[in-house]
Amino acid sequence: MRRALLPLLLISAALLLPACSAVRLGYGNADSLARWWIDQYLDLSAEQDALARERLTRLMAWHRKSQLPDYASVLGQARSLATGKATAADGLLLTEAIIRRVRRFADQAIPDAADLLLTLTPAQIERMAVRQAEKNLSYAKEARLAEGEAGRRKARFMRLLERAEYWYGAFSDDQEAAIRQLVEAQPSGAQFWYEERLRRQNELLELARRVQAEKPSRERVVALLRDYADRFDIPADPSRRVVALALRQASSELAAAIQALTTPAQREHARTRFDDLIREIGELAQEA
User: At what angle do helices 88-117 and 238-260 cross, to 10 degrees?
Assistant: First the structure.
């Protein structure tokens, strides 16, 4: 979860993103990085900082021991897609595999997030709202939302090309032109996902304000956070849910089409990237 349940889920999801060379450094300092991230949004008191430190240390110990070994199987699944003959269905299966693991992490983190949420002051909640608004401005600029669909597609093309070149190496001019055509043939979905981002943020702020005002029991706060997490990645509204699932399907189709454009040398480049990442994850798991 981004900008929600604090940054705890990012620790889990980040390991499945292109950052192989930084995995050991980032994972080894994940609790400190998460605490810093939380502080940027909340300006923690000394007592809250101590709580965050203790819970994050415990959470990461649980994750390293019980969850990290499983990540190699997901990365192996991703490697097969990147180096074999991928289909959109394969991509959706991988997406679901990642979501299941992030949800497992969320389930473990929610009670600790509830304890911190119960300590927030009105000033801290408003600080969080201000920080979210600031980050939204940067997000909208990067996604080129103000430039209409044409600008959003340009931003999406650049983002996809950067990620693809991380895994596969440099693309030729012809390949870049083909990818651009693929991107132009689909709606970007940028405005929709931005609205979903705002929905998640607003729901979290409403939840935090409700908790601060009503002072419910810890069990009730945990239940509220679990309900929030259940609708985090896909909206509950039926009409918007249809759009979200269609965009997810389109993204998987696009990923498969880009993979089909790659050469044997590029796929071998991706294999090496994944092998290095899988090895590093395995080493980290053994250190538990």
Answer: 130
Q: Residue type for 192, please?
A: F
- List of long-range contacts for 22-31, beta carbons under 8 Å, 24+ apart: 23/277, 23/280, 23/281, 23/284, 24/280, 24/283, 24/284, 27/64, 27/284, 30/56, 30/60, 31/56, 31/57, 31/59, 31/60
30-34 long-range contacts, CB within 8 A, separation 24+ = 30/56, 30/60, 31/56, 31/57, 31/59, 31/60, 34/6, 34/7, 34/8, 34/10
Q: If we measure between CA atoms, which residue out of 79, 63, 62, 61 comes closest to residue 20?
A: 79
Phi first, then psi, for residue 121 (nearest 5°) are: -95, 160
pLDDT band at 12 (very low <50, low <70, confident <90, very high): very low
Q: pLDDT digits over 240-285, tens only?
A: 999 999 999 999 999 999 999 999 999 999 999 999 888 888 888 8
Nearest CA to 149 out of 196, 185, 199 is that of 185
